[in-house]
Amino acid sequence: MATKNSRAAARWMVAPSVLLLFAWMIVPLVMTLYFSFQRYNLLSPDQSGFVGFDNYYYFLTNPAFFEALTNTLTLVLGVLAITIFGGIGLALLLDQPFWGQGIVRVLVIAPFFVMPTVSALVWKNMFMNPVNGMFAHIAKAMGLQPYDFLAHSPLASIILIVAWQWLPFSTLILLTALQSLDREQQEAAEMDGASVFARFAYLTIPHLTRAVTVVVLIQTIFLLSVFAEILVTTNGGPGTASTNISYLVYAQSLLNYDVGGGSAGGIIAVILANIVAFFVMRMIGKNLDA
Amino acid sequence: MARKVTQTRKRVVTVLAWSIGFLIFFPILWTVLMSFKSEGDAIKGPIDMLMAPWTLESYGEVQHRSNYGLHFWNSVIISLGSTLLALIIAIPAAWAMAFVPGKRTKDLLMWMLSTKMMPSVGVLIPMYLMFRDFGLLDTRTGLVAVLTLINLPIVVWMLYTYFKEIPGEILEAARMDGAGLRSEILYVLTPMAVPGIASTMLLNVILAWNEAFWTLQLTTSSAAPLTQFIASYSSPEGLFYAKLSAASTMAIAPILIMGWFSQKQLVRGLTFGAVK
Amino acid sequence: MNCRVRALYSACAVAALASAVSAETITVATVNNGDMIRMQSLMGEFNAKYPDIQVEWVTLEENVLRQKVTTDIATKGGQFDVLTIGTYEVPIWGKQGWLVSLNDLPAEWDAADLLPAIAGGLTVDGNLYAAPFYGESSMVMYRKDLMEKAGLTMPDAPTWADIKAAAAGMTDKANEVYGICLRGKAGWGENMAFLTAMSNSYGARWFDENWKPQFDGAAWKATLTDYLALMNDYGPPGASNNGFNENLALFNQGKCGMWIDATVAASFVTGKESTVADKVGFALAPDNGLGKRGNWLWAWSLAIPAGSAKTDAAKTFVAWATSKEYAELVASKEGWANVPPGTRTSLYENPEYQKVPFAKMTLDSINSADPTHPTVDPVPYVGVQFVAIPEFQGIATAVGQQFSAALAGTTSLDDALAAAQELTTTEMTKAGYIK
Q1: Contacts of A148 in chain C (CB under 8 A)
Q2: For residue C325, how many other CB atoms are within 10 A of its CB?
Q3: Alpha helix (H) ranges present in C50-181?
Q4: C:55-84 residues touching chain B, CB 8 A cutoff
Q5: Segment B101-110, tens digit of pLDDT
């Protein structure tokens, strides 16, 4: 289908985005690499110089590093699970005819509109606070002891908050994909006697795989660098129970003002993210083709 | 063609959908309710808070203290500007990758996504230094540039996905009718991709509207968008929930309205009848 | 007549043009605390006095502000003309030469009037590098009615034993009254500010003269043991996430018997948002008889970065905002209780201000804190509830996380102390303090 002409044209059309993104990526990357080999602390600028792999060594031997790694993966997997399954369910629901579809759609998409720091603050103080929060009040009304979410299950609470924020995104993409489903095919299958579940399993799900793949890929990228919600709710604690790699880099760069260490952490984060993306692509990459 | 949908089923689905929608929307509803109470009342338990007197004092204070208008315009310009710019660059690219895929296309797509893997915090200082040297600190131009580049991979990806849904036969038919490349994109592709482009646009505007790292670090006063407006009400010494809720409501309202209007575009627009 | 009028008009026009040309705009970065917001609302008065100076405000939450300002000043970004920084940053930045000396402010500004403890914290090598906007220490705020009900009285200068007895007497968990509310949220300016100050009264120090961390000593263990006992027996649930604002909310709702925190909280707990406004008593922060009390010292101050092109306008602004006249201005508009506290001796000698219920206790608290000699044993650093070295922020936040975990019950006290000792030693070695 692609002619030689269109192939050349295609290359021209892709070129601007590629060039821009390349420049955007290379320049900060090179600068970050440069800084990662330097000793550069914003507050002691006089102490500078090449220090080889020291920054990397310190970042990797940080006792919080391993836990941050597992927390990062847990966070990503947890949120993905909730948003994919919840998203498919919601998309199916919203695709059905019912009264007030437009309004409910906006209701469901609304969490994505709120700034992450604000929603994290609201969740922390209005819902999860064990003295004044809504969950505490409900527990007390039922005669139970209020549960201290953020102290005893910090990572799970953060997963809940982040999943609430991202559910609209996956719902929206999956819903749009659902709406391009071939209704005639569905009707034909129904007339041939296929049950609701069979139709769902053999027609709907395969159609959605590409959309699900895109959702997984995009969300993974965003979720790997979640840190605003952690900063506002638990500050990475208690201890390091809810610290992830991003938060660790933040702690280095903006708490210690250690640009060298923060840059090393950033490079390590990129390497880790690439590894994760490689595996994800391996598992679901083929779904991207028609 | 539409199957008959029973009334019972419609009622059940309506109740279910509205309950779930309400649950999901509840925290936002709560924030809006808090914005109409005084500070002391806003932190009370649910029943007490609802019973407390309604007041506009938080909105009054917020209006008096901050320049909502300036921040609002900055947010609008930055979000719309970066979205439009991203679309202009991304639509041709996504077209090319969807309809003229090469061997390297998937790698290219993955590479684009990988440009987002560096935590922004790690590149703050290099970026700040660059912006300082180019005189872009506290300018809308600088912010539009950064936000375009940050979100470009997402826009390309989403458009690519939607374009892939479009059957190639329609485009071939147009080509055989003699349509050139430009008219192929403008007159055949774009109308069919409207729902996809619309949802990409909506999501990108939201991502840019809420982006709270670069918008806070690279601006001071003249280019500061609504994210800074909200950050100035966050966590001071003293009670702040009512004011923060008021500020957030004022910041979300424009997007909610925009979302309401654009969600009509998300209804199926693809006419498969044209293919058969 | 016509000629003269026309001449007058043109003269006015020229004058207007000239003053418009000479109008300067300065950018002021500040925290979003109440006193600063008040200053913003008084800009009309400032412009009446100095019409040539326009002020652009950047108001942010403390942590974000600190990051922005530090990033900008360290990279010489030049975005700000006046910064609001604290007694932590001033010694560090002053030493780096990043701030403009304020020794040449006009004589009427009366530098000698500044409270000595505060001025000491803002001076490096004889140069005053920042003008204090408001100062604070910490003290005990308690419920007089609950103390009465328990049959106890709070001395003006209690010991930690007194505090423990008071907490035990006032606690009624079934009715959601908790004897004592203290900070537990992790952060160098959150729980660590309180714990460091508390540890001073137990004779503990962060570092000895050779910069070796002291978390493995008996003094820190005693501090934390008592802190955890108080919070676990008499404190509210979820305390490990409670910072200043959360405790304020609890106290205002009547759920705390005592609250040991910043002196500025006094105006909040006796203000219109509090349900217990008329039942609050004040006492000095407690001690253990070792000579140091458990209170801290902090002053938000206005400083001018060395690279600013508008130092004259900036100095005019700084002098106005921290002057005696500014205090009188606020008093005339909003009452003496709302004047920025803790900076000038003259304020506390003013009979009008002495009528404010917490004024004397605030002054006594500030005067009893000495940043140059914060601890019982000698130390190589300055700072009462912090150590004025750049590395402190990161180290103390990590240590704060450990102690917060101990409060939440997810780590044991000994493990938390050991972890704190280890990470502090590592960081200090890395930074070159420990040879």
Answers
A1: 237-238, 240-241, 408
A2: 12
A3: 62-74, 89-96, 116-121, 144-149, 160-170
A4: 56-64, 67-68, 71-72, 75-80
A5: 777 787 888 8
Instruction: Give the model's pLDDT for residue C144.
Output: 94
Summarised one tens digit per residue, pLDDT across range C294-319 is 889 999 999 999 988 899 999 999 99
Distance CA A101, CA A90 (A): 12
Nearest CA in chain C to B217: C68
How far away is chain B from the Cα of A109, in angstroms, using its nearest Cα? 8
Say what the alpha-carbon torsion angle B200, B206, B208, B210 is, to the nearest 10 degrees: -160
* Subunit contact B126:A28, Cβ cutoff 8 A: yes
Task: At C429, list the tokens.
Answer: 């070695």
For chains A and B, count residue pairs whose Cβ atoms are closer than 8 Å: 288
Q: Closest Cα of chain A to C335: distance in Å?
A: 32
Look at residue C281 and give its three-state secondary structure: strand
Using a pLDDT cut of 70, give the percent of chain B over it. Answer: 90
Residue type, C118: I
Q: Do B158 and A17 touch (CB under 8 A)?
A: no
The answer to whether the peptide bond before residue B126 is cis (omega within 30 degrees of 0) is: no
- Mind listing the pLDDT tens digit for each residue in A123-164? 887 788 888 788 888 888 888 888 888 888 889 999 999 999
Please give the backbone phi and psi of residue A85, each rounded to the nearest 5 degrees, phi first: -65, -45
Per-residue pLDDT averaged across A20-48, rounded?
82
Greatest mean pLDDT range, A32-36, B227-231, C141-145:
C141-145
- CA C392 – CA C374 distance, rounded (Å): 16
Structure tokens at A54: 């020291």
The count of CB pairs under 8 A between chains B and C is: 91
Instruction: Collect the ranges in chain C with pLDDT lower than 50.
Output: 1, 12, 16-21
The residue of chain C with its CA nearest to that of B37 is C273
CB contact under 8 A, B127 and A1: no
Please indicate whether, in this complex, the C-beta atoms of C187 and A235 are within 8 angstroms of each other.
yes
B238: CB partners within 8 A, 6+ apart: C33, C34, C245, C248, C268
B19: buried, middle or exposed (CB in 10 Å: 19+, 13-18, 0-12)? exposed
Interface probe for A, chosen from B124, B169, B197 (most Cβ of A below 10 Å), is B124
Chain B residue closest in CA terms to A140: B45
Tell me, yes or no, if B112 comes closer than 8 A to chain A by beta carbon.
Answer: yes
Query: Which residues neighbour C25 within 8 Å (Cβ) at sequence distance 6 or greater?
Result: C53, C54, C55, C56
Q: What pLDDT score was predicted for residue C329?
A: 92
Determine the distance from the C-alpha atom of residue C387 to the mean position of all C-alpha atoms in its chain, rounded to a whole number.
14
Average pLDDT, chain A: 83
Q: Work out the number of other CB atoms within 10 angstroms of the CB of residue C14.
A: 10
Task: Work out the number of other CB atoms within 10 angstroms of the CB of residue A78.
Answer: 18
**Percent over 90 (pLDDT), chain A:** 12
Question: What is the model's pLDDT at position C231?
Answer: 95
The dihedral of CA C205, C211, C216, C218: what is its sign?
Answer: negative
Pairing between strand C297-303 and C131-143? antiparallel
Residue B236: DSSP 8-state: -
Task: Count CB atoms within 10 A of the CB of residue C395.
Answer: 25
**Residue of higher predicted confidence among C159 and B45:** C159
pLDDT of residue A288: 64
What does the block give as tokens for B76?
A: 């609008």
Contacts of A235 in chain C (CB under 8 A): 185-187, 397, 400-401, 404
Q: Within an 8 Å CB–CB cutoff, is residue B43 touching chain A?
A: yes
CB B153 within 8 A of CB A21: yes
